[in-house]
Design goal:
By secondary structure, the protein is an alpha+beta fold. 16% of the residues lie in helices and 34% in strands. It has helices at residues 14-44, 136-140, 252-258, and strands at residues 52-56, 68-72, 75-79, 86-92, 97-103, 106-111, 115-120, 127-132, 152-154, 161-165, 169-174, 179-185, 193-200, 203-207, 221-225, 228-229.
Length: 261
């Protein structure tokens, strides 16, 4: 019987070994690649703080002009006034926006659940801060709230300080970080009326109607600015950021109030 010679080379037994090693290495890599979308989806599906859902529709270059603001479909929307195209949309679960306060770089919104938010206005990259109005939701649902009219008030021309006015108190926040700077409660037997306010120079004049008929009208009107209530010889704290330059304690509003018209 003839025997067919079979030549074994050194390379031949190595090939299946390398293939097996390659397949063993490829399997974890493939599983890892398949898991990446699942990991990403799990990351994005985590509950957003305060029920926020912030959607960016169009990227903008650094230094782009602030977009206009509007409420649309139960959300705050920033859009290009020239084209009407949306730039970003901010929604919150279980709440709808009642009022908006545009300021340079800031989009401040009052929501039906008594929350106040500040969103980066230019690009919608983040909701900077949230502040809750104590007992705000029940009051905002009442006719007395007038749909949140006048609750958000700027305290300076550039919007660096924000007043949140409710019947019981005025709370002032620094726009940059939402830091609470001062609180002014209403007098006993009186209540602030957010919708009734006028600006005179650097001062915001707010109505504080009182129930007693004997209450003088001067006690039913107060003046505030970014440093608090305007009264003679006050020594208010500044509103500068921590580590910043010393605050400028201005008295212009006081002088304007005292000057004859």
């Amino acid at each position: 019987m003839s025997v067919v010679p079979f030549e074994v080379t050194a390379a031949e037994p190595v090939r299946p070994v390398r293939a097996r090693r390659g397949s063993r290495l490829a399997l974890p890599v493939a599983l890892g690649l398949l898991a990446l979308p699942l990991i990403t989806a799990a990351h994005h599906s985590r509950p957003a703080p305060y029920g926020d859902h912030l959607t960016v529709h169009a990227r903008v270059a650094d230094g782009a002009a602030d977009p206009a603001l509007r409420t649309r479909g139960g959300a705050v929307q920033a859009y290009d006034p020239a084209t009407g195209h949306a730039r970003w949309t901010h929604r919150r679960e279980g709440a709808r926006p009642l009022a908006l306060l545009p300021a340079p770089g800031h989009a401040v919104a009052l929501w039906s659940d008594g929350m106040v938010t500040d969103t980066a206005r230019a690009d919608g990259s983040a909701v900077r801060w949230h502040r809750a109005i104590p007992g705000g939701a029940p009051w905002l649902r009442s006719p007395a709230a007038r749909g949140g009219a006048g609750v958000l008030r700027p305290l300076d021309p550039r919007g660096r300080m924000l007043a949140v006015v409710t019947p019981r108190r005025i709370a002032a926040y620094r726009s940059a970080d939402g830091d609470l700077r001062w609180v002014l409660p209403a007098r006993d037997g009186c209540a602030f009326d957010p919708a009734r306010a006028v600006r005179r120079g650097g001062a915001l004049m707010l109505a504080q109607p009182c129930g007693g008929a004997a209450t003088p009208w001067t006690a039913q009107l107060i003046a505030v600015d970014d440093l608090g209530r305007i009264v003679p010889r006050r020594t208010p704290l500044g509103n500068e950021l921590p580590g910043g330059a010393p605050g400028d304690v201005r008295t212009r509003a006081e002088k304007e109030l005292a000057s004859p018209r």
